[in-house]
Structure formats: structure tokens, C-alpha cells
Amino acid sequence: MPGNEFFAQKLEAMKAAGSLRVFPIVQSEQGGHFTVDGGAYLNLCSNNYVGLAAHPRVKQAAQEAIEKYGVGTTSVRALIGTNPLHLELEASLARFKHTEDAVVFTSGYLANLAAIQTVVGRGDIVISDELNHASIIDAVALAKVDRKVIYAHNDTAGLRAKFPEIRALQETPKADGSRPVTVIVTDGVFSMDGDLAPLPELLEIAKELDAFLIVDDAHGEGVVGDHGRGAIDHFGLHGHENIIEVGTLSKAFGVVGGFVTGPKSLAEFLRQKARQFLFTNALSIPDTAALIESVKILEESDALVKTLWANAAILKEGLRAAGFDTGRSETPITPVMVGEESVARAFAKELKAEGVLVTPIVFPMVAQGAARIRLIPSAAHTPEDMRFAVDKITAVGRRLNVLSP
Ligand SMILES: *Cc1c(COP(=O)(O)O)cnc(C)c1O
Hints:
By secondary structure, the chain is α/β, with parallel strands linked by helices. 44% of the residues lie in helices and 15% in strands. The longest helix has 20 residues, at 303-322. The mean pLDDT is 97. Pyridoxal-5'-phosphate (PLP) is lined by residues 107-109, 112, 133, 135, 187, 191, 216, 218-219, 248, 250, 258.
């Protein structure tokens, strides 16, 4: 079959099923307000939690680094692609996270692949929350892990009930006769609901099972914990040598990239072994310099994190007072539960017409019947922005009978 026809048929089928995506084009900086497809909107859909994506200091740092070093690194880190800025960024991330060392990657997705594929393989055991991010699921598949235990979301009692099954797997040697490695892996903050993983209990379980605990903190960094140090900091769990923390540099840090942080030997082992470090190029010069500045801004002051939470409080309290169900969120991520998929889509569409851009979240991102719109406030917003959003969401909610009229 001719290639063009082959793919065109697949796209037609997706179109018929209503699963074809359209990609909005952002024509301005990412801020509290932005321009999308020619229209100006209040931005409640970016992961720009503390407003660093277009922060003047971050932009300037990138520009200065370009003048000094150029743009590209033209090689993998292990050959001739390591710049002093990469080492500075890794050191500053380790300092920020209160860990011994960190390794940066070109995305959070790759950081998850690296953390998981380097630590476990065939015959090892991965214990995973059912709502973990797609990159964790892909990482487990890539690592060829065949002993998987999935537990119900945040259900540590349910996980404990699986101990006999897990211990039986642990007692079954791998093909080479060795004892399997066990890891528990979870998101730190879950992006669809804004709830936190019960990390203290998971760490306790990890200790009982002699397992590593891998925490993907993509939505926790820059958001929860002192100065936005993340979910580990929020729970005061620093310094445990069996915790492996994965992060993204593409959300609150405002640029692009990912990292793994933990004990020094873990970082060194990843640099030696991770295919996502050895066989793909390093972060670009402007990205790296911008990220060093982002970390510096968060370290210097917690003002942006406080502004984010103050804005989130206005938004959440306003919506709850209006009668909305904001689910189980414990973080600035604010779902507005609407139930039906068609209502979530209509809600987002009507808000867009009112100048507010939000993301409709529908099956398969969440369970059927649990559709919602998701709002992500930012330190780049003003309190007035939040009140404006509450007013518009309330008006649309009444029109669509999500609220009683
Ligand atoms: C966004 C996200 C990632 C991927 O990060 P990128 O830097 O965009 O590749 C990984 N895990 C979770 C939980 C995320 O939300």
C-alpha cells in the first residue's frame, strides 16, 4: 500500500472515532494571559506554576549563555557534549533538592526511562500506582520488567494486602539465580486530581519490602514543600538512600528537561549506564543556563510559590463557595468535576468563548463518568484573574446545569 494512503486511512479512522487531536498554537509568551490561535485568553491550562517560563531573569540567562557558548552541544554528554553549565545545573538541583547528586536529561520522560530501566530489568519487580504517568508505564515496558504489581490509587492498605504475592515474587530467583530487585514507583502529585501520594507510608512499605521508592515529582516541584522543593520535602523525607527522585524541568522550572536525583552513587551509576544519558544529546546551552537561573530564583525566595498558593486558594475557595466539586485536590491543580464527557468538552468550549482557556479531561485520561475541567493557576496570575475565572466558571456552570441554576 502506498505510504500516504496507509497513514491517511489511519487518520480517517481516528477522525471517525472522534479521537483526532487538534493542537492550539500559542503565539505569545506563556504567562497568566496568552494569545492562542489569534485570541487573547486567561491561561488556566499551562504547567507554568511559578511563572518562570518567560521570567525576565530566565530569558536573560539564556541569552548570555548563547553569547558565551553558542546554542547546541553537538554530542552526547559522555563524548564531548558536557558543558560546565550542565555540571552547575546538576549541582544546583542536588542542592535545591537536598540530595547528594543529580543527573539531567533532555526531558522528564527520558528521566523516568533512565531511572527505571537502569535500576530494574527482566525478573525484577515493579510495584506501581494504577494512575501513574504514561512515561512510567513506558519505562516499565522498556525495562522488560515482567513481575508487575499494580495497586489501586494511593491505596497503601490494598498494597499491603498484596504482600504475600510480592514476597512470593521476591523469593523466586531471577534467571541468573540472583534475588530480584524490588521498586515501588509513584507520581508525587497526581496531575488529574492534584492529590499527593502517601509517601511516608510508601517509604515504610519500601523498607519492609527492602525496595527502592521512585517518586516522579513532575507536578510537585516548584509547587509543594519549602520553596517548592517538592513532595519529598513536603513530607520531610530527605536523605533516605533508597529514595530515587525523578523530576521534570519542563513544568514549574519553566524550560525543558528532566533529572534524577538521590545518592551520589546512583547519579554516577546513571551517568555510566543510562542509555538516555549515553545515546542522546545533552540539554542545549540556553536551556541549561535558563534552568540554573530558575533554580536560583526558587532558592532565593519562596515569594513565587506563596503567590501560586494564594492564587490557588482564591480560585478553589471561590469555586467551592459557588457549589462546585473540586475533587480531592491538595495542591494548586484544581479539577472541577462535571461527570459527563460531553459536559466537560462543552464547559471548556464555553469558557474559551468567555476568554478563559482550560483543559477538558475525559476518558481515557480519567475513568468514564469522572470527566472534569482542570484549572492550573500560576504565580503569573493576579488575584483579580482568579476572581474573573471564578465568575466565568460559575456562569458557565449554571448554564450547563453543573450548578443548580
Ligand atoms: C509531564 C510529566 C512527565 C514528563 O515530563 P517532560 O519533561 O514533559 O518529558 C513525567 N511524569 C509526570 C508525572 C508528568 O506530569
